[in-house]
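Methods — Computational structure assignment.
A single polypeptide chain was analysed. Its primary sequence is given first, followed by the predicted tertiary structure written as structure tokens.
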Amino acid sequence: MSARTVGFIGGGRVASILIGGWARANALPGKVVVCDPNAEALARLKAKHGAIETTEDGTTAAAQDVVFIAVHPPVIPQALAPVKSALKPGAIVVSLAPKVTIAKLSEMLGGFGRVARMIPNAASIVGRGYNPVAFGAVLDAADRDGLKKLFAPWGECPEVAEAHLETYALLSGMGPTYFWPQICELKSLGESFGLAPQAALAAIDKMLWGAVAVMKDSGLTPDQVMDLIPVKPLADDVAALTTAMRTKLTGLMEKIRP
């Protein structure tokens, strides 16, 4: 399928990220309709992206070629109510939330099976996202290729097993929040020690990419990787940090599992 028009049910952060990624790449679909009950949220989005259409009427957004469900899991049943009656037979619904499976979405849509799920990553706003996607069984190769082309300006969109999407929600979806505070603090320190802001960010950018590459490509064990640098200023705090990550993320995983 070739998406000429796109609708968003939900005009919050996720919609802003994805529309921003298209806009940055000069790849906005021919028509983008965003629905949200919050008029202020719609006004903010419209101020950033004047070419989009905004509405508080869910049926208008749901009548497009591809319909993104960009709301939190608890709101999905309510959000899908206006979608079910307005969907075109050849439309595709793409949920951007964890927890609610393709089968459950199809059931909520009255048996409509043209459904996919994607876990969005915030870096999509600059075209460097990692957005795992799972497709409903009735979507054929042309449907899947069409969606991948639509998603391409956001970065990578690997096709994965649906059962793994919640894990990706914790790793790539929420993952930036685990590191952004540390990145901001490193940048601030770099500036206080004399670097220009962009020079500090450039160093941190390359350092982070390289650190992951060493873990992924060197053939060394994790212990060997961490032994490559003898001076570890935060060594005394690592155990507390990793314990907090394991405790909080394990608990969160239990909440977002289908």
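Note: The mean pLDDT is 96.
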